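Need the bound structure for 2-(butylsulfanyl)adenosine, inputs here:
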Amino acid sequence: MNIQEAEKQINQLRDQLNQYNYEYYVLDQPSVPDAEYDRLMQKLIKLEEQFPMLVTPNSPSQRVGGEPLDAFQKVEHTVPMLSLSNAFNEQELRDFDRRVRDRIGDDFSYVCELKIDGLAVSLSYEDGEFIQGSTRGDGMIGEDITSNLKTIRSIPLTLKKRVNLDVRGEVFMPKQSFLQLNEIREKQGEMLFANPRNAAAGSLRQLDPKIAASRNLDIFLYGIGLIEDEEIHSHSEGLEFLQSVGFKVNPEWKRCETIDEVMTFIDGWFEKRSNLDYEIDGIVIKVDSLAQQLELSTTARSPRWATAYKFPAEEVATKLIDIDLSVGRTGVVTPTAILEPVTVAGTTVRRASLHNEDLIKEKDIRIGDTVIIRKAGDIIPEVTQVIFDRRTGIEQPYSMPDNCPTCGSVLERLDGEVALRCLNPKCPAQITEGLIHFASRDAMNIEGLGEKVVEQLFNERLIHDIADLYKLEKEKLMKLERMGDKSSNNLLEAIERSKENSLERLLFGLGIRFVGAKAARTLAESCLTIDALISKTRAELQQIDEIGEKMADSIVRYFEKPEVVALIEELRSLGVNMMYKGAVRTEAEQSDSIFAGKKVVLTGKLSKFTRSEAKAAVEARGGNVTSSVSKKTDLVIAGEDAGSKLTRAMELDIHIMNEDEFQASLDEQG
Ligand code: IVH
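Answer from helper R.:
Posting the output first, comments after.
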């Protein structure tokens, strides 16, 4: 066969395979058996092997290609990827409608769409060829995840029309695929994903496209970012156009003339959503006409022509089988409900935090009770109430034990606290939690030393306290499960590097009560060395800006303990730095961080950070975390299910960041 003949055949095969792929993955209407598809694919692969000069990046044979990447490249979005304002109830939706009417009058229509609970991505096509795909990132700059996106079969590599465009959509993992994935992970002893959205996000963040390829991801496209040479006048025309050139568009969209019609659409889907094979967390409402969208324009964060109606948390009843206890870093003992597994919003819930004994008493929760579990988006499930009607009489009231479930010491309730604490500093549970904190990102930042590794090291008796970390030997490390030559070296290097950290990281990492990341920085800046800090009296400490009586007392008491004195000396002899290394900066000089000197409010549930981690991250960068939103607030970081604080921030036109943006800004600033 000559090259011209090969090219002709290859092109024909590609067209045919693209069409079959489209029928299977976009239309869900295969026209040929799988075996026929495989046969043509094999034929194409063979021909491409014979004529490697004819291989193109968008050939259907190249969906899963290439070596794993070292890192994702940054991509600047030509048109920013905005997020949406939220409406949490009918009134807020009607307020949105009123604002629209005030600006453009009454002559307009809406388009309602399902709000797919996945990850926003942008796909760029040139001349109908897929050239790049990226994550949303902070809306302006995302990451190039082209090779992972190419593995998603419903993303066309070549469009039916040779257009230049940027298109936006949501990558998601179908519920069924999510359940199967977690089942496999559980069997293999791997960490489970909390929900389909996290699983989709985790898959797209993999540097090896083979992993994304194995994850059965899918996509719905819902908007055009940029398009050349096409006459499109409305959002609905845009959706039809996207569908006509080969994209997968969710079919359940509807044009609505009035806000009452919108409400009916919302109510209908609230009922029907559990029948879908993918998760939705609300309905998106958009003004249809593009001219009117332009007239309404956008705020810094989100368009005025669209909003997202968020569904309230789903509630499900299940049985509370038992109550388990865990001991945290500070010795606080937390009760957790062990539940009969139940699916809430598409994910299986087996445990739910009960917070403390008072809450158990207040809600009169007993073992054996039927309880209501609530979970919005990816928040940690909570027991909201007991269904008293279901009591049979055999339910057992619960009392917290007198002794620590890990070490057996007597538990105590400190003055004014609801929590019970184990005060034994040698309690294994506290030690491991303390070590995890010591290694965490805003403390000593020891990469690779997470919960699992710490627990293994502790259980194998390789470490008993912080100082032991600096005495670890490679031979012993390698005996641990999943610790090969490379990971042992990496871990030892990360530990070694941490010796050079500036003092504030060590101070925060030690876990002194009330000393958060920000206070640690203030203390380090003002004292410069740990010895200077240790020698200060309560009164002297209180002279330092923002160090109050409670913290001063806690610091003095901490450094008075003989075991702490010994620990500090040991760390020093092991080469751990105990001096402040940063320049002594004024607040204004700290302005290289976007959080520096800012009043920040955290609201809603974050999935990747605990509240205290998020607070520590802001404080470590010079920000001030406060609890209520006022005119003085500079920034609101809003997680899932954010309520009145978010609404207030929107009213006051305060800069709002979602969790992804927050994460991205931390990643950027280190
Ligand atoms: S439109 C400027 N439509 O919801 C408007 N978003 O903050 C951009 N989402 O980041 C979004 N389904 O990830 C739109 N049908 C839909 C959507 C949708 C899910 C996500 C998207 C966006 C977030 C809202």
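Comments: Residues 372 and 502 are 47 Å apart (CA to CA). Residues 85-310 form a domain with the D-amino Acid Aminotransferase; Chain A, domain 1 fold (CATH 3.30.470.30).
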